Amino acid sequence: MLLLLVVVSACGIRPTDPIPGLEAPSGPVENTSPALYWVSEGRVVAVNRPQGSLSGYDVVALLAQGPTAAEQNRGLTTEVPFDAAPATVDRVANGLDVSISTDVSLLSKAAVQQIVCTLLGIQAVGTVNLRGGGHSLEFIKCA
C-alpha cells in the first residue's frame, strides 16, 4: 500500500524557479484623448473629445451625426452624409480598410479628410482605403 502511495504521488515533475519573460507591452492601444475632425470655413479641423476613447467603428457614425450643439455654435459642421453609417473598419498591411454605407465617389474632399484624419488620429497605422457604393479611394493620408 505504501508503495502505491509513493508511485501515485511522485509524478516526476520537479519544481523549478520562475522563468523570466519579456516586459509587458506598454502604451495606449488607441488614442484615449480622441479628436474628431469637423469642417470650419472650408477647412478640416481637429476638435478634442476628452470624455473617452473612440474605436474606428464609432467614427463614421459620429461624423455623420455632426458636431454637438456647442461645436455648432463655434461654426463647426460636417460634410459626412448621414447615410455613410454604419461602417466597418479592418486593419490591413498598409493601414485601414473602411467600408461605408454610401458611394465614396460622391463624398466631398472635406468629408473624405474628416473620416481619414479622425481614423488615423485614433490609430496611426499608415493609410486608409475607403470603399462604398462600388467605388474606392485607395491609400489616403490625412492632409
Q: Could you walk me through the main structural features you see in this protein, from its secondary elements to its overall organization?
A:
The protein is of the alpha+beta class and 143 residues long. It has one domain (32-140). Helices cover 26% and strands 24% of the residues. It contains four helices and six strands; from the N terminus they run αββααββαββ. The chain has helices at residues 2-9, 56-65, 69-73, 109-122, and strands at 35-40, 43-48, 88-92, 95-99, 127-132, 135-140. Strands 3-4-5-6 form a four-stranded mixed sheet, covered by helices on one side. The protein has a two-stranded antiparallel sheet with strand order 1-2. It starts with a helix and ends with a strand. The model is unreliable at 22-31 (pLDDT under 50).
Q: Layout of helices and strands, plus pairs?
A:
Layout: H1 2-9, E1 35-40, E2 43-48, H2 56-65, H3 69-73, E3 88-92, E4 95-99, H4 109-122, E5 127-132, E6 135-140
Parallel strand pairs: 4-5
Antiparallel strand pairs: 1-2, 3-4, 5-6
Please outline what is shown here:
The protein has 143 residues and is an alpha+beta fold. The chain is built from four helices and six strands, in the order αββααββαββ. It starts with a helix and ends with a strand.
